[in-house]
Amino acid sequence: MVADDHPLIREGIAAVIESQADIALVGEANNGREAVEGFLQHQPDVILMDLQMPEMNGIDAIRAIHQGAPSARIAVLTTYRGDVRALHAIQAGAVGYLLKSSLRRELVDAIRALAAGKRWFPPEIAAELAEHLGVENLSLREVEVLQLISLGHANKVIAKRLAITEDTVKGHVKSVIAKLGANNRTHAVAIGLKRGIIDSSLVG
């Protein structure tokens, strides 16, 4: 099954699959909600899931499917190279990662590998994911602090907003900078935005 809000991507995948005697496309979804419903209806062996879709994003859809079917074989379908979105998708239950730019070359092999119970991560993605897994793991509180820093708030204001002491905020800031390998607060925010750790839509 393919879940992607771009008809051309779905049509392209369908065209490739049609030429394969051992693979059949049993369902298509235009958003995450349809993907969850389609999985329940069709029970596909492999799901290709776009990350950015309307109504429900791919990561939430992966999480919803995985909760009901932990053995579901889901691969992320995306234009992005490995970043925090990929990490979140894997934490949600994805076992594969397909770049849309590589579909023509890798799609069939990836589907067969996933159906056989294997994982599928291109080498360049795997290397970046390993880098993230090694340094990231910010706590929810640290993410909150970083988000507030990105909005231009000083430690004193952050402490008041989160109902914690200023010293605790300083400790969180120090930890965030260390975990992200940043030089300072501003650099930490830049890394957070680039990797999708904090919400860019909230930053003015």
TrEMBL record:
Protein name in the entry: DNA-binding response regulator
Record-level Gene Ontology MF annotations: DNA binding
Keywords per UniProt: DNA-binding, Phosphoprotein
GO-annotated biological processes: phosphorelay signal transduction system; regulation of DNA-templated transcription
Superkingdom of the source species: Bacteria
Chain ranges of the HTH luxR-type domain: 131-196
Cross-referenced Gene3D superfamilies: 3.40.50.2300
4-aspartylphosphate, modified sites: 50
Organism: Marinobacter nanhaiticus D15-8W
